[in-house]
TrEMBL record, chain A:
Cellular component GO terms, alphabetical: plasma membrane
Record's keyword annotation contains Transmembrane: yes
Sequence intervals crossing the membrane: 108-131, 143-171, 191-212, 295-318
One Pfam family linked to the record: BPD_transp_1
Ranges where the ABC transmembrane type-1 domain occurs: 104-318
Organism: Desulfopila aestuarii DSM 18488
GO annotation terms (biological process): transmembrane transport
Entry-linked InterPro entries: MetI-like, MetI-like_sf
Keywords, sorted A to Z: Cell membrane, Membrane, Transmembrane, Transmembrane helix, Transport
This protein's name: Peptide/nickel transport system permease protein
Family from the record: Belongs to the binding-protein-dependent transport system permease family.
Recorded topology in the membrane: Multi-pass membrane protein
Subcellular location: Cell membrane
TrEMBL record, chain B:
Protein's UniProt keywords contain Transferase: no
Residues covered by the ABC transporter domain: 4-248
Assembly notes: The complex is composed of two ATP-binding proteins (NikD and NikE), two transmembrane proteins (NikB and NikC) and a solute-binding protein (NikA).
GO annotation, biological process: peptide transport
Entry's localization field: Cell inner membrane
PANTHER family documented for this protein: NICKEL ABC TRANSPORTER, ATP-BINDING PROTEIN (PTHR43297:SF13), OLIGOPEPTIDE TRANSPORT ATP-BINDING PROTEIN APPD (PTHR43297)
Catalytic activity: Ni(2+)(out) + ATP + H2O = Ni(2+)(in) + ADP + phosphate + H(+)
Organism: Desulfopila aestuarii DSM 18488
Protein name: Nickel import system ATP-binding protein NikD
From TrEMBL, chain C:
Domain ABC transmembrane type-1 positions: 86-276
Family statement: Belongs to the binding-protein-dependent transport system permease family.
GO biological process: transmembrane transport
Protein name: Peptide/nickel transport system permease protein
Amino acid sequence: MKTSAIIHSFWLQKVGRLMLTLALVATLAFTLVNLSPVDPVTAYLGMDRMQIGQEQEQLIVARWGLDKGPVERFFLWTGNALKGDLGRSMIFNEPVTEVIAKRFLTSLNLMACAWLLSGIFGFVLGVLSGLYKNSLLDRCIRLYAYTVASTPSFWMGMVLLAIFSVQLGITPISGAYPPGTTSADATMWQHLHHLLLPAATLSVIGIAQIALHTREKMIDAMNSNYALFAMAQGDSRFGVAVHQALRNIALPAITLQFASLGELFGGSVLAEQVFSYPGLGKATVDAGIRGDVPLLLGITLFSAIFVFGGNTVADLLYTKLDPRITNRSEPL
Amino acid sequence: MLEIHNLSISFQRNRASFDRETLSVVSDISLSVQPGEIVALIGASGAGKSLVAHALLGLLPANATMSGEFIFKGKRLSPAGIQELRGREIALIPQSVTHLNPLTRVGKQVYRSARLSGRCADTAHTSCDRTFARYQLADTVKSMYPFQISRGMARRVLTATATAGNANLIIADEPTTGLDPEVSEQSLAHLKELATQGKGVVLITHDLENGVQIADTLVVLYEGMTVEITPARALEENDLIMHPYTRSLWQALPRNGFMSLPPTPSSSTLNRNGCLFAERCPQARPGCRQSAPSLRRVNHKLVRCNHVAG
Amino acid sequence: MRAPSISLPRVAAVTPIPRLTNRTRAWLACLSCITFLVMLFVAAALLGRSGLDIDFLHRKLAPSLAYPFGTDWLGRDMLTRTVLGLCRSLAIGLLAAGCSSVISIVLGIMAGTMGRRVDSVLSLLIDTVMATPHLVLLILVSFACGGGPQGIIIAVAVSHWPRLARIIRAELLQLRESEFIHLSRKLGKTPSWIALHHLLPHLLPQFMIGLILMFPHAILHAAGLTFLGFGLTPHEPSIGMLLSESMRHLSTGYWWLAILPGLSLVFTVKLFDILGNNLRTLLDPRTAQE
Ligand SMILES: Nc1ncnc2c1ncn2[C@@H]1O[C@H](COP(=O)(O)OP(=O)(O)OP(=O)(O)O)[C@@H](O)[C@H]1O
Ligand code: SF4
Ligand SMILES: [Mg+2]
């Protein structure tokens, strides 16, 4: 009874928050897009504009509603968006929702791989680094993490590309599947093969944050009173790390990993550009460069939902997995 | 069973460039514990009581340096030797619930302690159940998290954790702090019982009353130094208290009318050349600030004061 | 009970280990940054612009003594291009971080002093800015400015302020409740006197360090945005632009076009990152004394 009420209020609050965030993001994005000096018709037609008659141009303007004022357009767009219609992408000539869905699925492979790899390796490195604080291993891990934090991810991608694809020739140079095939024909192995370098690029960078965070938490945990007591009971440092510290640092690490989905998205935009990976990130860049306003707006909203989702999962994990919060209502 | 000889502990701290400061927090503490004996280590907060316990267990922080020697059951302890004895021969009952892992159920922690003390999986379960029953902890407590149990319960859980093994020396750090009188009474009774089973007990407390109640020997610390080692009985007869600091503690007890001393001077201004207690000592004489007294044997007691007559 | 032997305290003598304190480290970092900048400017002046001339006799040369960074597909000297690109990247980063920290301080002060309502509106604004991934916002703003260098600078400036604004707001709220401000008010000091004598000395270091910490981020994000093709013109290439161009030649094996300019960017960014972090440790009372 009581718990269900708590759950309801949690979700109500989250949904309300999401709506508010989306409304604000939509307003901000729409305003920005309308400030742009880029004329959408020119952007769409490019050189062909010269050859097009006045009437045809008027037709395009009318179809996109460009003859109306920005405020009116905003409400029109919002109304359609609420109905699930984000308009048509100019460059892909498909509904924006479809472009996003298709592209996101391709990106999802990449992001999921990178997310898992960086999460696991970052956590393990952080634990080792914190456990053997100031050892040679710790120094190496820290040097790595701090250096990588000042490395642009696209450059890291280029370095990996130059080494593994060009010099060694063991990975493909670009794309999500071999040229000449379509996504549907390509085998699972081919997909993975093409995923390897972009995912590695994102992970190599992503490891840094989670490793440094875990290291701090690990050091705190090993200096904590409960670690001291466990050692007084005869446990070794390693035993304390495994039996006592791990459970205390795992949850913050997982939460952090969920809360940093925004950075993952940003990283994937850059990595997809380097590897010409046909995902959502590449679509974002194309939309921005070629002035595909509906797609740009759609992706902005989608990315806001994506980030919000990550933060919500992080919140949820805390409230569900930490007994100190879950069992709050239980009496002594 | 246990002898501590001349234990000193100091901390290093970085100050200005290339300069390190050494902060001496425990100096020259010696004591011994026999089987079945309760030795109370008494001192104000910050006197270095917990550090003595941690030093014995080899658990000082990395920036601490220690000198002195521990002899356990006739053998001199090396750092590796201490590691062997932790949990098996020497058990710690820590100061507060924060010493329990906040994310592990209480039952599992007591069980883990039993396992670490060298018991196999089966006997660990039975000894875990036995200690839970012994300290009147309901079975439901096993599945609770530390934040869910009350202070008194936490005290009993900590005691259970230390006694789930079969340690012969128990160190209880502040077993009564923050408890109401009834519960602290019970907590002390549990220690007394352990001593009657033949275990040696070191009772760490800032409350002289606790010591007088159950201990056999009192070791009084002031600013990291032993100022007096005396049989507990002696205190009941006020004039057998030798050291002015012990006497002041005694007079500060509720039953003796709360006579309290001027506050402790900050340790930076403490004059380390003379007697550390000189600033607050009612009996202080000019000579006390010049020469540091050493521990002297007077009437079967040890006292660190220049002006105690035998 | 056995009589304990009595002796003087024997504390093991500790030999002082020469370790750098935070203050020395900060000075060293500061010195390195200045040395680096001076060297960069001297190099730019010495190299001149002659390396930028197209020279078809020396195209696509790998790094050698004559051309330490190699030459590109038009025979231009990559060292010259890198040095100039780095200067340009630094200028863009500085400008963007400067604008961003001015936005931070204005909004932070507004949030910290103008009452609840302004505070909550600004916190809503911060939430909105943080709600989309950084890069998406950068692309949006750069699109809104119609590309170009100013687009990059505005984009980075507009997306980096929330962190520092929050710090300044928190500092202000804390200061407002502090004893000495209360005392000054009671003594009848004017708000501007309080601002000048109490708030400024506390906020200035926060602001400077916030600016220095933001600087490397700004360089990185500007480089990323340029790499994606937003903004800078190829005539005055920054490092991001250089890398974006090299991308086309990477698959044919001309690794030096990408590796060396990128490495110099990483080096620069790391140098300023170290400086910022060292200064922050100095300012933080918890770590200042170590
Ligand atoms: N890691 C450390 N670095 C520097 N000084 C320390 C450190 N740990 C403890 N100290 C100092 O050692 C002194 C003794 O600490 P200890 O914990 O032993 O006190 P205590 O007698 O147990 O007091 P309490 O009754 O409050 O538990 C304290 O004054 C403290 O400042
Ligand atoms: S030596 Fe002097 S100051 Fe110290 S306790 Fe004895 S009488 Fe007091
Ligand atoms: Mg203590």
